[in-house]
């Protein structure tokens, strides 16, 4: 828990660095060292990240993460997000008609069909 507290404190200092500098409580050298300290703390916290998130019992639909699924269907969800839920997959033409049009997914291997 001490590392989490330090991570919160140092990341707050990093995001509000001008205020701390103007108040005279830190110097430039200390602010420059913050990024390295934050990375060190994150390295120590990383092995416990899943347990920390699980401790809050946040449901999958709120996390909206394919990798942290409770049911373990990581690859199925990644496929679903990439192929079914991605709005770019519903666009099969270039809306800029004055440029070269490339039709994707029509069985032509993505060849240029027409030049306008």
UniProtKB/TrEMBL annotation:
Domain (Acyl-CoA oxidase C-terminal) ranges: 1-100
Any one annotated GO CC term: peroxisome
InterPro entries recorded: Acyl-CoA_oxidase, Acyl-CoA_oxidase_C, AcylCo_DH-like_C
Superkingdom of origin organism: Eukaryota
GO BP terms in the entry: fatty acid beta-oxidation using acyl-CoA oxidase; lipid homeostasis
Family, per entry: Belongs to the acyl-CoA oxidase family.
Annotated protein name in UniProt: Peroxisomal acyl-coenzyme A oxidase 1
């Amino acid at each position: 828990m001490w590392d989490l507290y330090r991570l919160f404190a140092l990341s707050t200092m990093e995001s509000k660095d001008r205020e701390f500098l103007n108040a005279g409580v830190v110097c430039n050298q200390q602010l420059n060292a913050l990024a390295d300290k934050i990375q060190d703390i994150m390295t120590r916290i990383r092995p416990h990240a899943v347990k920390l998130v699980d401790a809050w019992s946040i449901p999958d639909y709120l996390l909206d993460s394919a990798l942290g699924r409770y049911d373990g269907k990581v690859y199925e969800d990644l496929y679903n997000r990439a192929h079914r839920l991605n709005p770019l997959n519903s666009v099969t033409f270039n809306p800029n008609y004055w440029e070269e049009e490339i039709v994707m997914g029509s069985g032509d291997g993505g060849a240029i069909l027409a030049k306008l």
